[in-house]
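Internal tracking record. Fields below are filled automatically when a chain is submitted to the structure queue. Please do not edit lines marked as system-generated. If the sequence contains nonstandard residues, flag them in the REMARKS field before resubmitting.
Queue: standard
Priority: normal
Entity type: single polypeptide chain
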Amino acid sequence: MSDLLLLWIAAIPLMGSPGPATMSLAAVGAAYGARRGLRFLTGIIWGTTAVLVMIATGITGLILAQPALVHVITVLAAAYIVYLAYRIATAPVMGEALAESRPPSFHNGFILAIANPKAFAAIGAVYSGYRLFPLNLVADAAAKIAALFIVIVVVNSCWLVFGSAFSNLLRHPLAGRIANVVFAILLIASVVLAVFAG
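SYSTEM-GENERATED OUTPUT FOLLOWS
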């Protein structure tokens, strides 16, 4: 039990700190509200879980061994995150025509999570740094996947709710537009920091 608590203590700040997924969830929450951001949140959760499974099964190691493939994936991921930042920056402000506007979807969240360099770094560090069942690799992997899945759900849900707490304050067109642009800039900045920190 103490090993599990240590895993969670390490995972929550690493996986919950600002990054592309968390910043986009806050932005979607602020622009659309928590309820309308649920599909995007679900995509982020399952995409991040896919990253976790890729790390647990060693697929990421196979990908990282192919520099050309890593370069292509990096370029595609950066392009997608810039596209998502544009969508956030240009999202209608609460009270403009928001009811007619579509929030980012499940697949938008899923792709962002897969393209998120911070997810690979943070999950990789936590996953490889702890052993819950040192004598049984299968049980260890299953336990860590389950434990980290809980962290994925909690931290990402908190960021969506955090963003939605600002939604009522951002009904003024100028304040809402500034907030959308700031969240978009933070999304791009978080990717730049994740790439250069890694």
